[in-house]
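Subject: Sanity check before I submit

Could someone independently write out the structure tokens for this chain? I want to compare against mine line by line before I put it in a report. The sequence has 429 residues.
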Amino acid sequence: MEDGNNMFRIKGVITAILLFIVPLSTGAQEIKKGELLNLGRCMEIALKRQPNIIAAQNTVKASQSKVGQASANYYPQVDLTSGYSRENPVSRTDHNSVNDYSGSVTLKQNIYDFGKTSTQVDIQKLNVDSSKADMDNVTAQIILNVKQAYYGLLQAKRTRDVADETVKQFQSHLEQAKGFYEAGTKPKIDVTKAEVDLSNAKLNLIRAGNALRVTKVILDNAMGVPDAPEYMVEDNLSFQKYNVEIKDAVEKAYQNRPDFKSILAKKNAAESSLELAKKGYYPTLSGNASYNRSGEKFPLGEGWEAGVTLSFPIFSGFLTKYQVEESEANLNVFKANEQLLRQNIFLEVQQAYLNLKEAEERVPAAELVVKQAQENLDLANGRYAAGIGSPIEVTDAQVGLTNAKASYIQALYDHKIALSNLEKAMGVR
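---
Independent answer below. Compare away.
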């Protein structure tokens, strides 16, 4: 028997381990090794795998169950009871113990409670609406996190490519300086300067490579697949203006923001809770019926009863009064929170809109700087090749081009993030 219990325990442990491992392996299979992911695919994975969205979904299910709980008072309540006791009452002269058997079936039905049950159901339905809006808000935050991580990876990848290109440029300059030195047209210091520049460029490339790996880990975490295999991402770090007026953006935010919908639903639920508290002053009418059997031995005697009960609250220690006051205070809290959120939404949309406009202006300006820096480098290289330029001039031009490209990539990234923040502020996916 002990061996059987041990085997049962072992099977239970194995089952628990399998239940734990299967979801993790399934998550790893969400992404195939070497797969090319676009932004939409990354968001799709995140909305399946992120624990926050799973928690929000189950919160909605719990709220929906509370609607059923509140509706239970519409239906009859049936109880079945049975009992047995053995006693030796003091009043008996023979001092013999007796058996007492009993059993009953009781039926209770709420007939009329002045809308208390219906109000409770309405409150729970509003809570469902609020939890659904909260889930949409979680979804919006997950989408924003994925966008930030995705564009961050693209920025790091382009920055790494620029660093790699800079290394190649300095390598070419070093070979050129060595050629001039061997030909006797340039001093040794030109070669040394080129070697130092190349070493610094290689250090920057190492840092850029590590930054790329870190941003990949951040994107994995944002998608909810920290064990994801190696994959590629589609580069859509392109620039395109987003046409929207600030007034329209604010109106869309008030219409679409899930957190605003949630606070409105909670305020409506608070209003219904106030109505429910006031109904504590009203009576309730209920019906009841029961069938009973009892006795000292079988067959048991039987009986039944049926009737209606009108319960009118006369005095409950001012309980209802304080419940009404509490509900009024809670309602005022939600009204104040609604106004606060409305103001915060207005501020958030304005900030996101202004940041987007600033980013839109910076992108073409940064692009022009890249062209100018490239022309400057070409001139510096030409002057050095002709023997009239200096290595410092070439180095400064190359560093200027690298910085210009980095600023351009940063501007593209800032524009994408600003657009993502504005879309979230407006409640637009």
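---
OP: Matches mine. For the report I'm noting this point. The domain at 30-74+115-281+316-426 is CATH 1.20.1600.10 (Outer membrane efflux proteins (OEP)).
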